[in-house]
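Exam prep: given the inputs below (a chain plus iron/sulfur cluster), describe the expected output before reading on.
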Amino acid sequence: MSDEPIVRFHRVIDELTLPLETRHRERLQCRRGCSACCVDDISVYDVEAECIRQRHGELLRSGEPHEPGACAFLDEEGACRIYEDRPYVCRTQGLPLRWVAENHDGEVIEHRDICELNVVPERAVVDLDPNDCWSLGPAEIKLQQLEAAHEETPQMGDSGQLCRVRLRDLFAL
Ligand code: SF4
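Solution:
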């Protein structure tokens, strides 16, 4: 069992998402070979990038990234080559998602979304109980805390946000 905080975090996410995956088994089309959400512009905090660097060094040094247009970590069969160590965002995609955000008038609005492959018209995501959705927010905050603890001097971007690393940029060029 790894003591790495990020690995423990991923394990907790898997434990928390498992009941949702079970509850939504009939609607979820997510399986090996489906790469609909494996887009090319995914970026992660360095704490997750470092986990991939440490555990998949050979792939990053000698492997070829998937051609542009999809995630660099996909193989020819559309499977993830770092599945066990895939980032947080990859562990929740496909589930019904909910989050709250302020609109222009300062009202707090709840939003819902799901991969179009997992839409079931007779059981719309907007009608689900909140507990049947993955709520964005708490895990993202925890991830930011892990990033802050990981970097002695966390790198901040121009927008004042913690810097992120593009998955494609992890491959040696
Ligand atoms: S890291 Fe793996 S699961 Fe995540 S987007 Fe890339 S191929 Fe898909």
